[in-house]
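Bit of a strange request maybe. I'm writing a small parser for structure token strings and I need a real example to test against, not something I typed by hand. Could someone generate the tokens for this chain?
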Amino acid sequence: MPVSLCYNTLSQPLSNIKVVWVSRATQSPQQTPHLFLAIDIPIPAILKLPDELLILIFSQAACSFPLFETVIRTVKAHNNYAAIAAVCRTFYRIALPLLYKRLWIFGSERFSSTQHLHRTLTKRPGLRQYCKAVEVWCPEWYMPEYQLEFDTVRDLLSWLPNVRSLSLRDANWLMNIPDRLEYHEVYTLLRHACQHMLPHLEHLYLYYGTGSVSDQWIVPPPSYFVVLEMPNLRSFTLDSMTNWSWILPIGGGARFVTTLRLPDFSGTPSQFHKLLSWPKVLEHLAFSLHPRCMEVPWAEDDSKYMQAALNLHRGSLKTLLTASSRLWVLGPDVDTEGPGSQWNWLPRIDLSAFSKLETLALPVRDHHSYATLLPPSLRTLVLHNDRPYWMPVDDWENDWWPPFADISGKGEDWLTGFLDHLRSIRPQMSTLRLRLCPECWLRTLPLQMERASDPFFPWDTLRVFQEKAAKEGMEPIFDDPGFSKQEASPAVPDHLFSMEVGAKHRCNLKHEEHLNPVSWCRRDWFHRNEDLCQLSLHPISR
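Reply from user aminoacidic:
Good idea to test on real output. This should exercise your parser:
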């Protein structure tokens, strides 16, 4: 007797099986009746959720790797999305666009994965519509198969019309090997982006490489390059690049950019001014000066270039994020002998006339200089410690964060005095965000134990300060480290780093930047990653 098994989606206990005899009017007497086993299965609760919630759930489940190196995170996320898509047809329908939403195109060592992606998109062109962001690790020009790799990358960029975010990096960025992008590479790839990704392209990220600053001026730009128009470009990140004023969307092509990020800027003051002259109305600016800027030093006199560049957008700038310069700044009132003098963060600037500036992020410095730094409409001030964990013990004690330099407890006095100063010059400011990195502190714990048996735990001071500030109408905000002073021990910093902290706190540095001081550039502060703790581009409300 033939038996047909009818079911919905998932297996259920045998008690839910109903045996039904079905007779057909058209059946002949010689035919045997069919036996149907119908499984009555309720629809799982998760399948009743709207697609928007399922997308959020899948994204959180697939991308929960904040402390892994960037490429490892992306590989794990893609594997998770693939596993989710294999559960059922509903999951497949929702997870497939997420799987192809962001693509990584590799040259050189990882070119085989790019070839696989090329074959997939060739056989299934319908997948191309899902891609909204592309990161390209450009092929290395000296490799034997360079032309094949470059043509493959160019083809892929030509197939993705809905891309909104494009990132170009040098291939060896992953391994911190000195290398650099080639002029013709960037121009050719971006030309294809302009031809095939417009009008959707809104975000552009260019990362030059880790070579010497002087290398960037060896080859002059070819005369046949022309400015490429990207009329919808709104966010432009120029990472570790200097003498590229001739390039692509800049000038008239970037006049509608509202967000400009210049992490590890290693150019001259005049080049900084030229970069800021491209956008017509700039609202958000983030920059840091490169450690190798000592090859092109900024003297105190060059503060006029910095001030003039910022003044171009005095009436429109809403957010200004800065990080330490790592350069030697000399001036009449700079102590060149004292601790930390070589780490002065930038030439002095005056923001008192920036009427729309509401959010300002600065490295900690002497609070008496804030009278000219704080704009009149400021609502949120972000103070961040900007010290690498690998700093020598003496330097770390003095410079990891000046308010906490004295372990005896004067950090609280510094913060209290700073609060009084803020209330006197900017009474309307409602939020003070204090940024300390628990991972960085854990890395310095063995250094602290060499000097004192009782390590200094700055979050105790911050909690006391928070209570005092609340009485004054101020709201200090800081990230809880996720562990107590008693739980921290120099014998288990790696355990805390990978387990406790990873579960409760997301650092503002990538994992490999903690481990490799050469790559410590705070690059992630300036281009957004969904799973990293970033300085917001919007004011923090009460």
